[in-house]
């Protein structure tokens, strides 16, 4: 099965190169770095590195407290961080600058994986969340590189996707030293994929240990003072195609009752910034943007066309709708607004953060919008009910605080593996 998988990967290489060229055109200088996806990059002058792989922005944010703990506990060990997306790369540089060595993860082709491992020579590999690459996993085992999956999550949808390759995935998982799952449900799903009970431990979610950035609350308060402290403000964060129009239409509903309300909207992907701005203007909204007009003033919609700056805007808002949930994307990180004691709204599709979202809803810190047409009604209800917002915010923060400690549990596992 692995030989067949590798053969298909080689056949797909021309399409992979075409995709890289297209993405390079979209993301500026990305085309200069696409050789990294084949293991071609300048060899760093170190060995015995600790390697953390985080696919994109969400995984990088989740890994932030873990990477900081690794830097603190192993100050002499070089840190390698890999991502797959340009936005993930930008977030790594924003958080850590030159204190870590960043390179794009190679495609799961044997020659590319060989080059990558030969150059970074990791002492330990930490894969964040869900990335099962058979050739990479087998290559780590052959070289004696201990491999851990941390903050491991596996949605029902992802598990179904792996089923046709179950025998190969089972063999790949046998190359993993430890799987630190976010929840008992995630651990059970990894068990169904073929992981051994001895490999599995429930460590909790690293995102609960996410630090609130220094100054985020103060920046949020300053923004709110500029807009008017009593002005109703809500944020729609990490939105996708198919959601932005629904959010803008919901804001039209809100403005009919609260004419001074302000919507902050943060598209998930940079290529959608301009599209969302144009959509808002075409619906008749007065629009400001983060990059051009820093203070919305009397504007009705503020497009946050910047990456990695959500926390101050969460802090400035009365409530947060977290996107990727009105469409079947699976939802995004509900813990960021919860950390700031903001009530959370989500749509029906939250399978990527299933257990966290259900906990927040059960404890009263979040509410689910059953249908896209209900969003405006639910937002308006919360904007008009300060006591309910305060109750939900307190509960959201309480859930966030009660679940902390995953980084310490994962670091205990890391220490044990490295001592071996």
TrEMBL record:
The active site is at 59 (proton acceptor). It comes from Frateuria terrea. Residues 33-210 form the 3-deoxy-D-manno-octulosonic-acid transferase N-terminal domain. Involved in lipopolysaccharide (LPS) biosynthesis. Catalyzes the transfer of 3-deoxy-D-manno-octulosonate (Kdo) residue(s) from CMP-Kdo to lipid IV(A), the tetraacyldisaccharide-1,4'-bisphosphate precursor of lipid A. The keyword Iron does not apply. It is found in: Cell inner membrane; Cell membrane. The record marks 129, 207 as: Transition state stabilizer. Keywords: Cell membrane, Lipopolysaccharide biosynthesis, Membrane, Signal-anchor, Transferase, Transmembrane. This is 3-deoxy-D-manno-octulosonic acid transferase. GO terms for molecular function: Kdo transferase activity. Its EC number is 2.4.99.12. It is a single-pass membrane protein. Its main location: membrane. Pfam families: Glycos_transf_N (PF04413). It is an enzyme of class 2 (transferase). The keyword DNA-binding does not apply. GO terms for biological process: lipid A biosynthetic process; lipopolysaccharide core region biosynthetic process. GO terms for cellular component: plasma membrane. It catalyses: lipid IVA (E. coli) + CMP-3-deoxy-beta-D-manno-octulosonate = alpha-Kdo-(2->6)-lipid IVA (E. coli) + CMP + H(+). Pathway: Bacterial outer membrane biogenesis; LPS core biosynthesis. Belongs to the glycosyltransferase group 1 family. Glycosyltransferase 30 subfamily.
């Amino acid at each position: 099965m692995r030989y067949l998988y590798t053969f298909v990967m080689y056949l797909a290489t021309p399409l992979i190169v075409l995709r890289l060229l297209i993405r390079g055109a979209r993301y500026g200088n990305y085309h200069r770095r696409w050789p990294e996806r084949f293991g071609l990059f300048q060899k760093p002058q170190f060995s015995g590195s600790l390697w953390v792989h985080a696919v994109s922005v969400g995984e990088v944010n989740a890994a932030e407290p873990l990477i900081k703990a690794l830097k603190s506990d192993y100050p002499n060990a070089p840190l390698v961080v890999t991502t797959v997306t340009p936005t993930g790369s930008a977030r790594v540089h924003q958080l850590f600058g030159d204190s870590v060595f960043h390179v794009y993860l190679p495609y799961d082709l044997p020659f590319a994986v060989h080059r990558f491992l030969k150059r970074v020579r990791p002492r330990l590999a930490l894969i964040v969340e869900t990335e099962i690459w058979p050739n990479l996993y087998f290559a780590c085992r052959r070289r004696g590189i201990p491999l851990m999956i941390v903050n491991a999550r596996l949605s029902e949808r992802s598990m179904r996707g792996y089923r046709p390759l179950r025998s190969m995935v089972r063999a790949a998982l046998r190359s993993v030293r430890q799987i630190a799952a976010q929840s008992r449900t995630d651990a059970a799903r990894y068990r169904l994929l073929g992981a051994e009970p001895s490999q599995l431990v429930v460590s909790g979610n690293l995102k609960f240990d996410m630090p609130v950035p220094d100054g985020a609350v103060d920046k949020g308060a300053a923004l709110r003072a500029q807009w008017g402290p009593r002005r109703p403000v809500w944020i729609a964060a990490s939105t996708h195609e198919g959601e932005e129009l629904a959010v803008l239409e919901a804001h039209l509903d809100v403005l009919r009752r609260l004419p001074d309300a302000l919507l902050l909207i943060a598209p998930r992907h940079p290529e959608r910034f301009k599209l969302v701005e144009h959509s808002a203007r075409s619906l008749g909204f007065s629009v400001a943007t983060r990059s051009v007009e820093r203070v919305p003033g009397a504007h009705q919609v503020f497009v946050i066309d910047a990456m990695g700056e959500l926390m101050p805007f969460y802090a400035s808002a009365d409530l947060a709708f977290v996107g990727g949930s009105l469409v079947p994307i699976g939802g995004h990180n509900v813990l960021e607004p919860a950390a700031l004691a903001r009530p959370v709204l989500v749509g029906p599709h939250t399978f990527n953060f299933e257990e966290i979202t259900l906990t927040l809803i059960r404890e009263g810190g979040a509410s689910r919008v059953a249908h896209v047409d209900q969003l405006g009604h639910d937002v308006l209800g919360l904007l008009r009910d300060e006591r309910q917002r305060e109750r939900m915010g307190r509960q959201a923060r309480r859930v966030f605080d009660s679940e902390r400690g995953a980084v310490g549990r994962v670091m205990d596992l890391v220490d044990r593996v490295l001592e071996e």
